[in-house]
Write a structure and sequence with these properties.
Layout lengths: L1 H22 L4 H4 L14 E3 L5 E3 L7 E7 L6 H19 L1 H4 L2 E7 L7 H8 L7 E3 L3 H10 L4 E4 L8 E4 L3 E4 L5 E5 L5 H11 L2
Helix pairs in contact: 3-7
Keywords: Copper, Disulfide bond, Metal-binding
Protein name: Thioredoxin domain-containing protein
Family: Belongs to the SCO1/2 family.
Length: 202
């Protein structure tokens, strides 16, 4: 009886340990594919950051990238979306600073004609101290838009300087190998974003 009891106790301990590993924060990625697994989103780009330094996709290797495409002259959607994403990141930082440090937030402009380096630098500084702002010439930005499957189009006369941009407005999380993991939409609240980051960031 004692031997049988010991075997049952060991089996129970193994089952409990397995449950803890599966349910631990950030452990889901090991046993479950992320929602965007296999999607052809992301790829090469060659831009400059808010300090004028060249940046390619290689700069994000080894880190999770929280990416949003928008433009600084956007009157409503872009700043609201970006604020929600950064609030979610801050909430995740408050819960687990070590894992959150592995997340690099990135803003990429879709309007390089107006979003020069100084403009982007001032813009990103209002949202998060680690937010990387990327811009470049039109050809370079178009290349990034193509890699990330982002739609963007100028609204109004071609010669206009006071114009709006029609564009897709989603945030994305990429893994340290640059593979897409998650899509954040406009219905996701900061708490939702924090919970998803907690679930998938290792």
């Amino acid at each position: 009886m004692n031997r049988r009891f010991i075997l049952l106790a060991l089996l129970a301990a193994i089952l409990v340990a397995g449950a803890v590993l599966v349910l631990a924060p950030g452990s889901k990625q090991a046993t479950e594919a992320p929602p965007l697994a296999g999607a052809t989103i992301g790829g090469p780009f060659s831009l400059v950051d808010q300090d004028g330094r060249p940046v390619t996709q290689d700069a994000l290797k080894g880190r999770y990238a929280l990416v949003y495409f928008g433009y600084t002259y956007c009157p409503d959607v872009c700043p609201v979306d970006l604020a929600r994403l950064m609030q979610g990141l801050r909430a995740f930082e408050a819960k687990d600073a070590a894992r959150a440090a592995r997340v690099q937030p990135v803003f990429i402009t879709i309007d390089p004609a107006r979003d020069t380096v100084p403009v982007v630098k001032q813009f990103v500084s209002a949202f998060h101290p680690r937010l990387m702002g990327l811009t470049g010439n039109q050809e370079a930005v178009d290349g990034a838009l193509k890699s990330y499957r982002v739609y963007a189009r100028k609204v109004g006369p071609e010669e206009a300087t006071d114009y709006l941009m029609d564009h897709s407005a989603n945030g994305y999380l990429f893994d340290p190998d640059g593979k897409p993991m998650l899509l954040f939409t406009q219905v996701d609240k900061p708490d939702d974003i924090a919970a998803l980051l907690d679930r998938w960031v290792q």
